[in-house]
Structures are given as C-alpha cells and as structure tokens.
Amino acid sequence: MGSDTRISTHADWIDFVAQGNPVYTAPTLASDVIQNVPEPNFGSVLNYFLATFDEPLMQDISFHFRTINGTAIANKDYIATQRQMTIHTGENHVAIPVTILGDKITEANETFSLEISEPIGFRLPNNALVLIATHTIIDNDTAIF
Ligand SMILES: [Ca+2]
Ligand SMILES: [Ca+2]
User: Fold this and answer.
1) How far is residue 62's CA from residue 45's CA, in Å, rounded to a whole number?
2) For residue 19, what pLDDT is reported?
3) Quick check: 137 pLDDT over 60?
4) Contact (Cβ atoms closer than 8 angstroms) between residue 101 and residue 79
5) How many helices (H) and strands (E) does the chain have?
6) Which residues have their alpha-adjacent CB atom under 5 A from ion ligand 1?
7) What mean pLDDT is predicted for residues 65-77?
8) What is the C-alpha separation between 1 and 75, in angstroms, rounded?
9) Choosing a second label site near 144 at 20 to 30 A (CA), which of 9, 34, 60, 125?
C-alpha cells in the first residue's frame, strides 16, 4: 500500500539504481567547467576544476593543490583531496576532479574551493602565492510538507 510520499521516495532510489548519477567528463576548456554542480541524492558525482595555460608548455611544470571548506564541509558534502600535479611539455591544461557526495537533506547551496600553491616551473598570475577557485554545490532537495 503506502502513501504517495513513500512511493516517490522509492522512485528516487529506483532511478538511481537504474540510471546512476550523471557522469561528467573532464573539461578541456574553461567554458566547460561546471562551477555550479547539482548535488546528487545518492552516491557521488565528480566535479572538475581546470588549470589551463594559453600555450602548450615548453617544459614540465607542477604545483600543489588542496580543497578548502567554504560552507560545504569536507567528507560530509565532498571528499577532501590534495596532492602534487604535473602538466607535461606540450600540454596546456589539467583537470582536477573533486568527489561531490549526495544526500537527501534539505540545505542551502554550499561552496568549496580549490587552492593551487607551490608552483614549480611557472609563476602564478601577478606572482600570487596561491590561486583559489570556488565552486558551488546546488542543493537538489526541497522540503515536502
Ligand atoms: Ca540531494
Ligand atoms: Ca541536500
């Protein structure tokens, strides 16, 4: 039997099992970066940041990156990640994936950031010590009364 609410909750779950979450491909152009990513209800999706250079590199470069909490909280709303990244000679970009965690909780849209530091083989714009880019997780859960 069950109420409409129970049925719609199950339909949600069946959709997830049948179709899974959207699989986003790694961007190669700044215009392809998804800065406002819809939160899933179950499981996770990948959201990419992109480091790009105007021209193919004449030498290998590397940098360190780490995620930083905004209003989104690491390991609750997304998976904290940090490591060294290299872009090789002849390439001009690298995409950095961050795992966004799904839930069924009604909440505000939440922000998190990626910080790039410790450049080796290149300078950050304006000789900055770090570069920070912020993305937003768009809550997809609405209260039902
Ligand atoms: Ca959700
Ligand atoms: Ca939510």
Assistant:
1) 26
2) 87
3) yes
4) yes
5) 1, 7
6) 39, 41, 140-141
7) 98
8) 37
9) 34
